[in-house]
Amino acid sequence: MTQNPRNNHTAEPESLYDGPSKSQRKRESHALQDLGAELVNLSKDALARVPMSEKLDQAVRDCRKITAHEGRRRQMQYVGKVMRSLDESEVEAIQRALDVIKGVSKAETAKLHALERWRDRLIAKDEALTELLAQHPDVDGQHLRTLIRNARREQAAQKPPKAFRELFQALKDLLGTGASNENSDDAEDDLPEFPVREDDR
């Protein structure tokens, strides 16, 4: 009886892992390119807070200086190339720094909106000032009353919002005197801290 040679054939493993698939590598490449674009679009101060190799730092800063569309596109491609040369720990450190920066920006935006809501409430109803003074007894109430009255007159007469802006600045002067409530849906119920930026001065 002749044996079927197939029966004597040693079975090979169905598949051998030979690294990430082509599509996965493509996705990872695009993700690193996007991460590089985030670095290029950061503010100067924020960029200084991101841990980067000297080569990546130079590539990003060179890209920020280029205004011509095609030149900037080519430099962005180079930034992506440098990003792909980083090891995993370097990429993770950059991502963590960006997450922190974006989190701070989100909190600052929420605080800005809370201050704007306070201003609108103060102009809309007298009770809001009573509430604010109860929370912050050291505030110059007379000054706020004057600003509120002038802001109301400006709106009624459709004049330039000088007092309207001054009222917002007065609220910013309360920084550090109230507890932050940035994670609350009722942020307007408590005046939060709001970081002073250079362009606000």
TrEMBL record:
Pfam family, one: DarP
Homology family: Belongs to the DarP family.
GO cellular component: cytosol
Biased composition (Acidic residues): 183-192
Keyword flag RNA-binding: yes
Region (Disordered): 1-30, 176-201
Cell compartments where the protein resides: Cytoplasm
Regions of compositional bias (Polar residues) in chain numbering: 1-10
BP term (GO), one: assembly of large subunit precursor of preribosome
Function: Member of a network of 50S ribosomal subunit biogenesis factors which assembles along the 30S-50S interface, preventing incorrect 23S rRNA structures from forming. Promotes peptidyl transferase center (PTC) maturation.
Organism: Pandoraea pneumonica
Keywords: Cytoplasm, Ribosome biogenesis, RNA-binding, rRNA-binding
Residue ranges crossing the lipid bilayer per the database entry: none
GO molecular function, a single term: ribosome binding
Protein name per the record: Dual-action ribosomal maturation protein DarP
